[in-house]
Amino acid sequence: MWREDDPVADAPTQPKRVAVIGIGNALAGDDGAGVAVVEALRLRLGEAPGVLLERLDGDLFAVADLLPRVERFIFVDAVIAQPPGAILRPVPPSPALAPSLHQTDIGAVMTALAALDLVDPFPRWEVWGIAIDPPQELKEELSPPVARAVAALADELARLLGGLSHDDTGCLPASGQGGGPP
Fold first, then answer.
1. What is the pLDDT of residues 138-151, one digit of tens each?
2. What is the rounded CA–CA span in Å between residue 55 and residue 172?
3. What structural domains does the chain harbor?
4. How far, in Å, CA of 114 to CA of 93, rounded?
């Protein structure tokens, strides 16, 4: 239980080096691919130092609460593209009509949040995608090609993040976003 005079509760928390954020709706089949990657990573990594694993399955602006806690974001989302199951990294900034299944895409959200100067420096970020066909029905299962891509991407991220220390992001590929679109 937290107490007002608790020195542990008052201690500042060290920001995580990297956050992997799964975006999607697990009840809409393949649209839940990003969330499935994060859940698979949780099984592979557990509580890896320097790594934050979260999911955004509702309001994408909720990421604002994570900005001061992270130096770099890798967002994983389902993207309408061909062939289903292809891994796309990084996903280029989307045009006005985004291929995202959400009301807005995370790139637009991060660009808006950067303009608000909520944190300085603003975290670097990029979007990695898994190609899907548009969902036709509500279901929790992933299609076979998307399920294979989820496993492959979780394996790749686990290898990249597994040995991450607080002072090292050198094992990660260069970010395609510098706190906003390039």
1. 999 999 999 999 99
2. 20
3. 14-162 (3.40.50.1450)
4. 15
2-61 pLDDT per residue, tens: 334 434 444 446 778 999 999 999 999 999 999 999 999 999 999 888 999 999 988 999
Q: What is the value of pTM for the model shown?
A: 0.82
Cβ-based neighbours of 78, under 8 Å, separated by 6 or more: 23, 24, 30, 31, 32, 33, 34, 101, 129, 130, 131, 132, 146
Distance of alpha carbon 50 from alpha carbon 36, whole angstroms: 21
CA distances for 38 relative to 28, 44, 115, 118, angstroms = 16, 10, 28, 26
User: At 143, is the secondary structure helix, strand, or coil?
Assistant: coil
3-class state of residue 106 by DSSP: helix
